[in-house]
Amino acid sequence: MKKDYFDLTGKVALVIGASSGLGRQFAKALANQGASVAVAARRVAKLEETKAQVEEFGVECIAVPCDVSDEESIIACIGAVVEKFGRLDILCNNAGIIVWDALLDSTTEGWNRAMATNVTGAYIASREAARVMEKQGSGRIINTASIAAHGGEAGSVSYYASKAAIANLTRALACELSPKGINVNAIAPGVFATELTEGSLDSPMAQEQKAGLPVRRFGEEGELDGILIYLASDASSFCTGQVIYVDGGQTCKM
Fold first, then answer.
1. pLDDT in tens, 45-84
2. The pTM is what?
3. Residue of 123, 159, 160, 230 marked catalytic
4. Which residues contact 41 (CB under 8 A, 6 or more apart)?
5. Is 123 part of the annotated catalytic residue set?
């Protein structure tokens, strides 16, 4: 009998940071493989748009308001998903911001905001999801890192530091949770057209960066779907603690 290694029918996924961009694409990709999906973010109107697009795949979807800088909001979000579906199989920690400023112009408030959104929120969500997944004896946690986890550049010390933290948070969680049947990995995208990069991809610096990529272009919608589904599915049963770069070859030259 032919086996579909990537079938997610019967699984429940939560995508945090799903109001637009990569998070919205992740939610749709999971739905396309049959998973029931909960989408969470602060922007409720945008979240409802994501929910409507996910439901086009014929799966059940709920929208849960969630502020990842608020611990109680995250705990309530996880609780709402479990109350609705009775389980949680896949957690995607995708919420993130970039605070653009040079070091000498930066503020502690900006640093703390980036860390709270990009790192602390993922830690809390992973902790609360792991409580549920441990009882089930299985689960997948997928964090969104970045090529910024591989090395630093000028212009946003908080972002580069936070994405490096996500990479090592992923490894530490994998060491602790994998014996419980919960695999933890991270996707590290290169440059994709999203709200985070909107308005910057046509700059001379961006065009120079693109010309230096082995593939000579930036990432396009859907090009993270394959790795996401692999990490969410049974096909990745022996893969944990990994930070997987999907970047058009950028990090092989860094």
1. 999 999 999 999 999 999 999 999 999 999 999 999 999 9
2. 0.94
3. 159
4. 16, 17, 18, 19, 23, 47, 50, 65, 66, 95
5. no
